[in-house]
Design brief:
Helix content: 25-40%
Radius of gyration: 22 Å
Shape: elongated
Structural class: alpha+beta
């Protein structure tokens, strides 16, 4: 049985009219709705860009079962074959193709009360508990992609020749490679320190992982564009 937290609220919370966003989302408001026909709940709503959607056996769903705000959110386990649960087409992405990504729709999905995780209103707390690990995963994926782009560019520069020599021998291009290599090491250091802090349950773990939002995208993202430019 495959089990994934396909709808676990984390850093990316999306709605059909908004799409995905890497900025902090209003998580307590962007939730599927759950009504309470005894015995259990009925959920309606849609989520976009959900990792693992359509291939998982179970889904952990954060749905609004109470009042507005974080305390009105509860967590539920939903079987992948539940009546009323449907999935959109697999997204065509530039990368990260090892994991399917689809929209997930709830049309009157009935969930037994016994499928609730934790107590009523614990959903947001449960979701936030998974946020740190999720940020580490995203950061590691971004770093790996940037490293591959860098290595591909270096290999190509050693092969391509201009003015009688490999373009890797031009000092101006060597400076650009040095900047990219430095950015990658900065990101790698931040990521490893944050991961160690989480493993050791350091009280500063969440703070360190939150800092990844700052250093990882700027150092790694610029590595993609210059590396690609060096291939042409």
């Amino acid at each position: 049985m495959r089990v994934r937290t396909a709808l676990l609220m984390a850093e990316r919370v999306s709605r059909p009219e908004r799409g995905a966003s890497s900025t902090p989302s209003p998580a307590p408001t962007a939730m599927p709705r759950a009504k309470a026909p005894a015995p259990g709940i009925k959920s309606d709503g849609q989520k976009q860009f959900i990792s693992g959607a359509g291939v998982s056996s179970l889904y952990v769903v954060m749905a609004r079962s109470g009042a507005e705000g974080p305390k009105g959110i509860s967590a539920f386990i939903v079987p992948g074959d539940a009546a009323g649960l449907s999935f959109g087409a697999n997204e065509k992405k530039m990368g990260w193709n090892a994991q399917p990504t689809r929209s997930v729709s709830f049309d009157g999905v009935r969930i037994p009360a016994s499928n609730r995780l934790g107590a009523e209103g614990d959903g947001f707390r449960i979701a936030m508990a998974g946020l740190d690990g999720g940020r580490l995963n995203i950061a590691a994926s971004a770093l790996g992609g940037a490293q591959m782009a860098f290595e591909t560019a270096v290999g190509y520069m050693k092969e391509r020749r201009a003015f009688g020599q490999a373009i890797a021998d031009f000092q101006a291009l060597q400076f650009r490679l040095a900047d990219m290599a430095t950015d990658l090491e900065v990101s790698r250091t931040f990521l490893r320190r944050a991961a160690v802090a989480l493993d050791e349950r350091s009280p500063d773990a969440t703070r360190g992982i939150s800092l990844l939002v700052i250093p990882v995208p700027p150092p790694t993202t610029p590595c993609y564009t210059p590396s690609t430019a060096l291939l042409f």
